[in-house]
Design a protein that fits this description.
Layout (H helix, E strand, L loop, with lengths): L13 E5 L2 H4 L12 H6 L17 H15 L3 E3 L4 H4 L9 H16 L3 E2 L2 E3 L5 H5 L7 H17 L5 E6 L1 H10 L15 H19 L4 E7 L3 E3 L4 H23 L20 H5 L6 E4 L4 E5 L8 E4 L17 H15 L6 E5 L17 H19 L4 E7 L18 E3 L6 E3 L1 H14 L1
Parallel strand pairs: 1-2, 1-12, 2-3, 4-5, 5-6, 6-8, 7-9, 8-11, 11-12
Antiparallel strand pairs: 9-10, 13-14
Amino acid sequence: MPDHPPVPPLRGLRWSAATAAFQVEGARTAGGRGRSIWDDFVETPGAVRDGSTAEPGPDSYHRYREDVDLLARLGVDRYRFSISWVRVQPTGSGEANPDGIGYYDRVVDELLAAGVTPFPTLYHWDLPSIIEERGGWLDRDTAYRFADYSALVADALGDRVTHWYTINEPVSTSLQGYAIGELAPARQLLFASLPTVHHQLLGHGLATRVLRGRGAQTIGIVNNHTDVRAASPSADDQTAAHVYDVLHNRIFAEPVLLGSYPDIEALGMPPMPVEPGDLEIISTPTDVYGLNFYNPTTIGAAPSDSPVPFVLVLTPDAAHTGFGVEWPIVPSALTDLLVDFHERYGESLPPIIVAENGASFPEPDAVDGAIQDDDRIAYLRGHIAAVGEARDRGVRIDEYTVWSLLDNFEWAEGFTQRFGLVHVDHETGRRTPKASFDWYRTLIEEARS
């Protein structure tokens, strides 16, 4: 991996680390937890690369105090974690489960006692299975079920939690979950999956209004965005890249920021199932815009017999993470993306939070001491410097979040990918901070000095 320049001073930037419930909690049946689409997915033969089921993993359900201690040692301002819908509302309807709420009560209190601000995400992909059986995010009613669940959580925690993310990465749910089936719920609907985009965004807007009505100070959605690059200057490749940019970026950002969808029908996609008043709800003002970034995407024109008009191709002259060539390392792409959002959306764009950024590299399952993860340090250094460059160019970015605090269950990759600042032995749960943990802690200290 090429060397990167030192990170410039980043005065006023808040620092965070993140996890997600299904990936770290374990304890699938504890405390009356219900069944989610990810429980269904991991039990499908061949769906998860290593055949694992997220158990026990980090077991943060029982070991959350260790995690909070790590956060305090790290010196972060905030902790981005997610709340499991099926712990709070096991069947996706009805009253809150006291045991599930009790767990998050304890997490929140522990964080506050440690001086770390809780910043929970209400939905990080763990849809109740019973809701999926009724249509999942293809069904408009799911947006209203999500709003009801959001009210339960806010009523229970809103006296101490005032910063909230609504939905994480609807693009991944829609495109990987419903369009091509790589993630739960493993449907393969291609463009027929697009109603899931609208219904997730509608759920976000409804939840934003619920949270605002209960005194929330900071609310935002979290979208995964990528800097889309055409494989060549040819008209076909440029058109393919434009279609992909609309599909991956703009149909998720513009309804929230501008109150309208790009013209997807002109690109051969079916219309969104918009009903009167929907876009006003979706574009309910938020306080921040959560932007996840991992890598740029290079796009070429697809063969004439392809069901979609684009193909992902190798990004030239780029190293890559442990995920392989599909995850190229190009820190400048983050600057380009942030500046593009700033210039494209202007006053409609609230302050940005980089809500996830990190990298997986091959590491052993068990360790005797700290891992010298220089590749991860170089990745983080380059991307944090890219955030600083974007700020210098006028982009308001208020917070940076490392994915992830812990090595965790990496969805369809199981336990084969390790993103953590902290190594986790998934057999024993033992936590061992890596060299990147100390590097990030020092960076935070220096940024505050």
